[in-house]
Amino acid sequence: MTISDNGFSATRRLILKGAATVALIGLGNIPSGFTSALAAANDKYPEDAFKAKSDADAIKSLYGKTAEPSDKVKLDAPEIAENGSVVPISVTTTLANVTSISFLVSENPNALAASYKIPAGTLPSVANRLKMAKTSNVIAIVEAGGKLYSATKEVKVTVGGCGG
Amino acid sequence: MASTIRVRATSSGDTTEVQALIQHPMDSGFVKDAKGDTIPPHFIQELTFEYGGKSVFVADWGAAVSKDPYVKFSFKGGKKGEDLKISWVDNKGATDTTTAKIQ
Fold it and tell me: How far is A118 from chain B (nearest CA, A)?
């Protein structure tokens, strides 16, 4: 953890308080017509890939090809996650011409968690926090020069992030 | 209301490191509340960072991103004092936008 990371943690309590307010406002009556119109305009969002159940289906839907494992993709995730609702996961790669990076959690109800577009000039390195329903493989996909590369790591989850 | 987006963008000369924290419930649609009713899905789908009129980072998110999501990335360029524009849209059509000065 860097010093700046800690800075964010210190503000987390404040943010959590605010989140309740956001939820109330967010759940207000948004006309359904507006939502669908927006979804249509938003055609770049890979809806089908996010609905895919398995990791293989999600990768196929998102990229239309399969990935090969590569030691140039560095996936950083904890061995054991005590809290499956917040699992810090990051990826960096030494591959050139990276155009996108995606994160999948194999055992989640929908495997694809997040997909990032990396325009030219942006470094191929992303950190984020994901929810994990249970112990599962986490897969990072890096698209570089039109090819797919992957790294996989198992993360043990002691308390799931999707249970009720 | 204050912005839901907190951003810290720090220039180190050649590159700018961006950390963002967003207030959002990120409900997956798989969780039940105390009464046993399913909480409907409510999550951010797209998050965009723009600098100098160009996208420098675009996130497509599913429901498996944690509540109050955090993301970190870096891009080449970015001058101190200039604006980085951040916006998101969720699956219910809600949006928020903010700009942050690169430090």
Answer: 6
